[in-house]
Amino acid sequence: MLRTKVLSLVARSGPSRLMSTATKLTTVEVNDKTGIATLTMCRAPVNGLNLELLKDLKTSIDEIESNKSRGLILTSSNATIFSAGLDIMEMYNPEKERIRAFWTQLQEVWLSLYGSSVPTAAAINGHSPAGGCLLATSCEYRVMLPKFTIGLNETQLGIVAPKWFMSSFLSVLPQRQAERALNQGRMFSTEEALQIGLIDETATSKEEAVEKCAAFLGTFARVNPLARALTKQQFRAADLQQLENERKDDLEKFLFFINQPAVQKGLGIYLEGLKKKAKK
Ligand SMILES: CCCCC/C=C\C/C=C\CCC/C=C/C(=O)SCCNC(=O)CCNC(=O)[C@H](O)C(C)(C)COP(=O)(O)OP(=O)(O)OC[C@H]1O[C@@H](n2cnc3c(N)ncnc32)[C@H](O)[C@@H]1OP(=O)(O)O
Predict the structure, then answer these.
(1) pLDDT band (50, 70, 90) for residue 1
(2) Which of 59, 64, 139, 221 could form a disulfide with 37 if both were Cys (CB 3.0 to 4.6 A apart)?
(3) At the top level of its lineage, which domain of life is listed (predicted)?
(4) In terms of C-beta density within 10 A (0-12 exposed, 13-18 middle, 19 or more buried), how is residue 155 classed?
């Protein structure tokens, strides 16, 4: 009942405005009636998370947070890809200083999205592997379009998802299923993701996905915002604190791991495979 009301409210909702942080790689549009901000990733061709996109994501999340938006919906401007995850080019034959800045920025984005005091939802309008899945599972609610895939496929690339990737995943799935999926590097179809609980709903179009996300965010309309935010943060505090405490160690572990010749070789082969597939 409430859900239907909120959905129709959203459908009738009024004009929106672009916020000042709108950049080339992300845009933020705030619906003036609902107060919900839609944060769109728009880095061609696949929303690969490189240093610049991560910086824009962090700036946009911070601005949404400080403008006291009623909610944040994360989505993509690409018709078939939510995000292809970390830009592998940042990790393959990396430049010393840049890769440090890259990983540090990824930590920042995760801390602010997973720890956001604003309610969050992801309208997953395309494939969402690895880092894409990290962003989606850092949100509180997920609506996904059919015929796409989502999951943490790191082991398929010969790399390892760090502890905090697992934290987001574990905030959505029970440990037994999460552990198996990560060990397998399993990508779930939309239907499988719904069945296992990795996503909350499906939608037939991006517009419908955004509406369903807005309806979820609307369920908090009559809840005290401070009480809601403090409750959410208590659930997530231990995960967030763990990364805060281990940030330097986490960076050094990542650098050590990624610079191993066997890992570099594996990434090179994976990239080559992607490029061959793209040419077909
Ligand atoms: C105690 C132990 C240690 C603890 C841990 C310590 C350290 C941890 C170490 C490492 C952790 C790293 C975590 C990594 C997370 C990641 O996110 S890795 C990235 C994973 N992503 C993928 O595997 C996705 C790969 N891409 C695809 O599957 C597909 O591209 C697609 C997203 C499904 C889209 O398909 P399609 O529409 O057909 O597009 P194309 O495949 O043709 O791609 C277009 C071009 O984009 C390039 N590309 C695709 N994905 C990426 C990417 N992730 N990075 C860079 N580039 C990408 C692709 O090559 C095409 O390029 P060209 O047009 O050929 O130039």
Answers:
(1) very low
(2) 64
(3) Eukaryota
(4) middle
Give DSSP secondary structure letters for 79-96. SSBS---B-HHHHSS--H
265: its two tokens: 């070789």
pLDDT beyond 80 at 274: yes
Which residues does ligand 1 sit against, CB inside 6 Å? 45-46, 48, 80-81, 84-89, 127, 129-131, 153-154, 157, 159-162, 253-254, 257-258, 274-275, 277-278
For residue 178, give its domain range.
4-279
Which CATH number belongs to the domain containing residue 9 in this structure? 3.90.226.10
Rounded CA-CA distance 127/41 in Å is 13
Closest C-alpha residue for ligand 1 atom 50? 84
Q: Is residue 154 among the annotated active site residues?
A: yes
The structural domain count of the chain equals 1
* Tens-digit pLDDT profile for residues 7-33: 333 333 456 666 655 458 999 999 999
Provide the token pair at 226. Answer: 């401070």
User: What is the pLDDT, as a whole number, of residue 156?
Assistant: 94
Residue 6 has a pLDDT of 32
Residue in 134, 137, 272, 274 to alter for ligand 1 test, most ligand atoms within 8 A of Cβ: 274
Q: Say whether 271 is catalytic.
A: no
Compute the distance from residue 195 Cα to the ligand 1 centre, in Å. Answer: 25
Entry pTM:
0.94
